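In this section we walk through a basic example: taking a raw amino acid sequence and producing a predicted 3D structure, encoded as discrete structure tokens. The instruction is simple. Fold the sequence below.
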Amino acid sequence: MESYLLDWANLLLRWVHVITAIAWVGSSFYFVFLDSSLTPPQDEDLKRQGVSGELWAVHGGGFYHPVKFAGAPPQLPSRLHWFFWESYSTWISGFALFTVSYLWNASTYLIDKSRMDWAPATAVVVALAFLAVFWLLYDGICRLFGRRRNGDAIVGALVFVLVCAASWLACHWFAGRAAFLLVGAMIATSMSANVFFWIIPGQRKVIAQMKAGQPVDPIHGQRGKQRSVHNTYFTLPVLFCMLSNHYSFTWGHPQNWLILILMMFAGASIRQFFVMRHGWKLGRNAHPLPYALVGAAVIVGTIAGLRLSQAPAAPQPPASSASAGPVGYGQLQPVLAQRCYLCHGEQVQMKNLRLDSPGSVGQHAQAIYQQAVVQKLMPMNNATGMTDAERDLLRRWFESGAAVR
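The resulting token sequence is shown next.
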């Protein structure tokens, strides 16, 4: 029953998380586009009101005319929309999903004993520390260097080094699948913390100053804009981390930390292309195509490097007819008992799957083959030590017709 309820919790939380993430990323991308596409107002009345930019757009059969005030508008409107629940709900649902999927079963999903053989409680504490420590270090870098000359470049370089160090540590301390997700959660936590600690409080201070009839300090808008820009560059790396858990050839590689860094760098570079292309259309900057080409080149290089590193070894003598022949259920059953029953037996049926029953094995043969042979996702983190020879035995059983009699 516990496994069944956890599966439902995982499904529903994942559903909510994807929906809220779409809303957050969508609004973030839209406002980056809007800021990059604004042009000086033509109407004299808008200029007198303090409007610094405007945009005409058509969508869904209607015309829209958003404007941006350089500082504060002449007066506060009676209805003001705030953009923060997209961020908060994405983080809350994501953290809940991370708890259900990884922290709740740390010994299975979080720990790889070949890397760090620590107690589940220790692994959970260290994983949570990743979220908090990264935010503190990132925030400290922004505070110390963000307002200096060439501050954006300095912050960008230091944050890149910080992300690389965190990725290396995560991939050496945790199971590969969990490490990728943890790095994504770490960066996403800082994104939401930017909204919670800087962007929204700064906007509240501006409104409070307006209500009190005080001059509006522009520093609040500048700080909020800085953190908002950081968030847009974090977005594609985070999305890669969250999607990668379906592709074991990335996090299962011996140099998985390098793959993670390269793909996140590629995502940030490609995002730079999309950020700058709006300004290029208005003649504000050079064509940003080189950023996209750099990102694409890094991805292609990573794909090629993975392929070369997984190239087959020198040809081996042909296997004997006995070892290469069909495999029956009688030969496979001891492997299942030793490697799979721990999580899919009489006592525990994770994912509501039992492999101690021939009928169930036959029913789920395709999934077993995909998970254990093709993707090598199971056993999780290879906790029971399934060998390549045993995976090959499973492959030959499946290709022989997956008989269970």
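Looking at the output, two observations stand out. Confidence is low (pLDDT under 50) at residues 313-322. The beta strands are 51-54, 57-59, 62-64, 67-69. In the next section we compare this with other chains.
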